[in-house]
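Table S2 (text version). Query chain:
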Amino acid sequence: MFIINYQLVLSESEIASLTYEEFIEEHNDDFLGLIHFSFNEHEYGYYSEYATIHEFNLFEEWIILWFRMLNDAVFLLKKKGYAAIKTIEEPDNWIVFKNSNENVLIDFVLATDMIPNVIVTAVPLCGIYHVGWENEVINKSQFFSEIKTKTGDLIQKIERLNNNLAKSSVNFQRLKEAYLLAHF
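Corresponding structure-token output:
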């Protein structure tokens, strides 16, 4: 089973009152927060429902970027049968997704061949070492559904809280585009 948990650093009231200019200047056109992926018994990231500011500072990730990468990976997996996401904090580490009939096989690898300026690719990685797990089996429909549901929830939340920000943010619009391409 594949599960995504995430939490934004900003509260709903902070998001609602955020101007586009503040979002760009103070938040780099993304929301910081915690994100955690469970691939059956294997995990990546960090999440706590009651996270302290110290935990946010220690484990913060770019939430819009992560969801955009996941949706890009779904699109590539459907079209090419393979996708790899470069982890944000560890640029040599990749999460690899491969089609296998009704399942997705997932690897966590170290890629020694540098791929500049690429964060999601459909080109199989070279020079890889399995540093985490290999061929973790996840039901494909459940995998796609979890990404679709959690991304849709995030998009709806931001649009509900601050529609002007959602319309103005280039990064948010890219997320919506990736979401629509991947699932509709």
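Notes on Table S2: Residues 103 and 140 are 4 Å apart (CA to CA). The beta strands are 2-8, 32-39, 42-46, 61-62, 82-86, 93-100, 103-111, 120-121, 128-130, 136-139.
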